[in-house]
Amino acid sequence: MKTIQIIEDDKSLREELSILLKHAGYDVVMVEHFSDVYRQMTETTCDLILLDISLPEENGELLLQKYRRKHDTPVIMLTSRSSEMDEVISLSYGANDYITKPYHPTILLLRIAEILKRKDSPSKINMYQDIQVNLLKGTLSRDRQEEILTKNEMIIFQMLLEHQGEIVQREVLMTALWNNDEFLNDNALSVNVSRLRAKLGSFGLSDAIETRKKLGYLLK
Questions:
Q1: Is 166 left (phi over 0), alpha (psi -120 to 50) or beta?
Q2: Do 103 and 160 share a domain, yes or no?
Q3: CB–CB of 20/109 below 8 Å?
C-alpha cells in the first residue's frame, strides 16, 4: 500500500484530504506541527508528498527546493495560489504537479495515481532524437541545457511521443488533459502546443510538431 504525506496547515482541509486518500486505499501520514517541517519531510518514509505553499513558518516552495537537493520522492504542490508564476517556480524547484484549491477530489486522485504510476515505471527516461525526456521531473534535456515542461505540456508531449509519426486527434488530447484539469478549452490546447513548440525550438526542433488542420498534431 502506498503512503502519502500531507503537509497542510489548515486542519479541516488536512483531515478532509486524509479521509479522501484513505478511502482511495492509501496510507496517510500528516504533519501537524510546523516548527520543523523539513525534518519531518526527510524522516518520513512515503511514496508521495502533498505540500502546501503557504505554511505558518516556512515557504513551501523553498522547502521543496531544499528537499530536492537530496530526495526524489514525488511532490504535488496543493495551494490556493493560482498565478502562472507560482506554478512555474514550483515546477522549476522540482514539483511533479501543481493543484489549486478548491481541488476536485477525483482529479486529485487521478493525478496522484498517474504520478505514482510513472514513479513505478521501469523507465522514467525516454528519448526523442537526442533529447532526454524525464517523465517524472517533467523536463527535456540535452547536455547542460534543460527545459521544464508544465504538466499539460508534458501530457501533450508524452502522448505525441507514444504515437510518433501518427496524427493524434485534438479530441484525444483534450480528453487526456481534461483528466488532469477541471476545464480546458480548444484555444488553451493550442496555446499549450505553441509553448511546447517553443521549448522544443530551444533545442533547434521548432518544426518537430506538425499541425494537421481539423485533425490534430503529429510529432515527426
A1: beta
A2: no
A3: yes
Last residue of a domain, one of 81, 104, 120: 120
Compute the radius of gyration of the chain from its Cα atoms: 18
Q: Is the pTM of this model over 0.70?
A: no
Q: Which three cell numbers stand for residue 125?
A: 527516461
How do the pLDDT tens digits run along the chain, 220 residues long? 999 999 999 999 999 999 999 999 999 999 999 889 999 999 999 999 999 998 988 899 999 999 998 898 999 998 887 667 777 788 888 888 888 888 889 889 988 988 888 777 655 778 999 999 987 778 999 998 999 998 889 889 988 998 999 999 988 888 777 654 445 567 788 888 999 999 999 999 999 999 988 789 999 9
